[in-house]
Amino acid sequence: MPETSATINNPVIPGFYPDPSVCRAGEDYYLACSSFEYFPGVPIFHSRDLVHWTQIGNALDRPSQLRLPPDTTSSGGLYAPTLRYHDGRFWLIVTNVSGDGNVLFTATDPAGPWSDPIRLPAVHGIDPDLAWDDEGNCWCTVAGVSQIRIDPRTGETFGESRHLWSGAPGAKAPEAPHLYHIGDYWYLLIAEGGTERCHGVSIARGRTPGGPFEPCPANPILTHRGTDHPIQNTGHGDLVQGPDGSWWMVFLGVRPHGGTPGWHVMGRETFLAPVTWVDDWPVVGEVSPAMAPPPWPLEKPAAVPVRDDFDLSELAPGWISPRSRPAQNHTTKERPGWLSLRARGESLDDPEVTFVGRRQQHLSCRTRVLVDPAEGRGGVAVRLDEEHHYEIEATPGQVQVLARIGPLRSVVASHPTAPGAVVLRIEVAATRQFTDARQGPDTVSLGVEDAQGTFVELAALDGRYLSTEVAGGFTGRVIGAYAAAGTVHFDWFDYEPLDD
Ligand code: 6LW
C-alpha cells in the first residue's frame, strides 16, 4: 500500500519484528524487538517521528552477549525485550529462554556497543520490564505478573518476588508487563489472551509501583478478537509520548491472508496507534493499515535500496542467521564485493545451516540473487524454520527447487543451467482474488533467469506451508542466501516490494 501525505503505513515496522518496546531520549525514539533463534539478536530501530523507523544495529551482536546453542529450538532464544532510557543511559532487559534466562545490557549509544550481559539468576519469568521510582529503586516486573526490586548494574535482587495482577480472571497468558508513572498513578500495562487471535492489551493502576492495582473498567483497551479487522492478534503494547506530548502505543499484530482460517506469513509485526486519556485511563484509538499521520512533521522515509552488493566488510544490521554466525563461514572479505558462505550443515534442515537472510516485509515481493556455485552447492531460500522452507539451489550446471514441509522433503524441479554464475529468483505473490474458502495466503514461485533476464519459473508453491498457522511458533519468514556444501559466493542480493 503506497504511503501518501494523507496516510501512513501501518505496520510501521513490517516483517517479523514482534514485541516492540519503545523509549524516548530527547527528540529521538528507539525501539527494540524479539529475535528468537537468530543471531545477531534484538534489532534496534531509531525514529524522530514514531512513524518511520531505521534499523541502527542489533543490541546483542557479539558471541559474548548471545549464546544460542545448536539445540536452541526455532522460536526459542530471545523473547520480549524492554528498552528504557534512564539516568543518561539506555537499558535493555530480555529473556534468553534457551540459555541465560533474564539478562540486562546497557549502552550510552543505542546503536552500540552494548555491554556484556548482566545476569539476573533470581528473576524468574519472561517478558521482564524495568521501571525506576522517584527514590531511584529499579523494579523488574515479569509475566505472571510479578515484581522484584533489582540493581540493574549488578543483577542483584532485593526481597521476594511479589504477585501484582493477572489481568481478567481466568484469562490466558498475562504477560508483557510494562510499568509507568504517569501523573498521579502507576500504570501496569499487560498483554493477555495469548499471542494468537485472542490477544489483547489490558491495564490497571495504583498509587505505588507495587500496587495495589485497580483494573481499568474498559479492559481490554486493545483487542481485535472476534472481529474481521485486517490486523489481528493485536497485543503486547508499550506506551510512549509523541514530540507534542500526545500519547501513542506500539504493539504487535499480524496480517492474515487467504481463505479460512487465514494464514500470516511474516510473523508478528510492529504497529502504532494513538492513545487519548479519559478519567485517567488510556483509550486506544483506531488501528488502521493506512492511518492518519500524527500532527508533527514527518521525516522523509529513507529510500531503501533494492540491492545489497556486499561491498562492505561487515553485513548490514538487517541480516540474520540461525543461532550463530561465525566469521569463517560468513564473510565479505574472502572475495571482495561478494558474500562467501562456507557450508556447515548440509541443508536448511540443519539448525546451524550457513544462512544469511532478511525478513520478508511485504505481502508480495521479489528476491533475485547472483550466485556462483563453482566451489559448492547453495542458493536462496524462504525459511520459516528448519522444518518449513522452500529453496532454489544451484550446483555447477544445474538448479533444483526443494521443499520441506514438516516431515516431508521433496525435490520439486530440476533444471540445467549454463556453467558459471546464475541469477536465482523467488517471487512471493499475495492472493488477490478470493475464489475458494481454502485458498492459501500467497504463492511462492521459484526459478532462474535466462540469459535475457527473463524469469523461468520452475515451481509455484502454496505459501500456507510457510506460515505461522502451519509451522507454529513466534517467528515469520526470512529470505536468504545459504550454502549446503563447499563455499558458495553471492555477488548481490536484491529484495523489492511488489504491489500488494
Ligand atoms: C512473548 C510474549 C508474547 O514473550 O510472545 O505476544 C512471546 N507476546 O509476551 C514471544 O514473543
In short:
The chain contains one helix and 38 strands.
Describe it.
The chain is mainly β. The protein folds into two domains: 8-291, Glycosyl hydrolase domain, family 43 (Tachylectin-2, Chain A), CATH 2.115.10.20; 307-497, Jelly Rolls (Sandwich). It has one helix at 468-471; strands at residues 8-9, 21-25, 28-32, 38-39, 41-47, 54-60, 78-86, 89-96, 101-107, 118-119, 129-132, 138-142, 146-150, 157-163, 175-182, 185-192, 200-206, 214-215, 222-223, 232-241, 247-254, 269-278, 281-284, 290-291, 307-308, 321-322, 330-331, 339-342, 354-359, 365-372, 376-385, 388-395, 398-405, 408-416, 422-430, 442-449, 455-462, 478-497. The strands form eight sheets. Strands 25, 27, 28, 29, 30, 31, 32, 33, 34, 35, 36, 37 and 38 form a 13-stranded antiparallel β-sheet that branches. Strands 15, 16, 17, 18 and 19 form a five-stranded antiparallel β-sheet that branches. β5 (41-47) and β6 form a beta hairpin. The chain is globular and about 70 Å long. The N and C termini lie close together (6 Å). (Z)-L-Arabinonhydroximo-1,4-lactone is lined by residues 18-19, 34, 79-80, 126-127, 175-176, 191, 195, 235-236, 252, 474.
Tell me the layout of helices and strands.
Layout: E1 8-9, E2 21-25, E3 28-32, E4 38-39, E5 41-47, E6 54-60, E7 78-86, E8 89-96, E9 101-107, E10 118-119, E11 129-132, E12 138-142, E13 146-150, E14 157-163, E15 175-182, E16 185-192, E17 200-206, E18 214-215, E19 222-223, E20 232-241, E21 247-254, E22 269-278, E23 281-284, E24 290-291, E25 307-308, E26 321-322, E27 330-331, E28 339-342, E29 354-359, E30 365-372, E31 376-385, E32 388-395, E33 398-405, E34 408-416, E35 422-430, E36 442-449, E37 455-462, H1 468-471, E38 478-497
Antiparallel strand pairs: 1-24, 2-3, 3-5, 4-26, 5-6, 7-8, 8-9, 9-10, 11-12, 12-13, 13-14, 15-16, 16-17, 17-18, 17-19, 20-21, 21-22, 22-23, 25-38, 27-28, 28-38, 29-38, 30-35, 30-38, 31-32, 31-38, 32-33, 33-34, 35-36, 36-37
Bound molecules: (Z)-L-Arabinonhydroximo-1,4-lactone.
(Z)-L-Arabinonhydroximo-1,4-lactone (6LW) binds next to strand 7, strand 15 and strand 20.
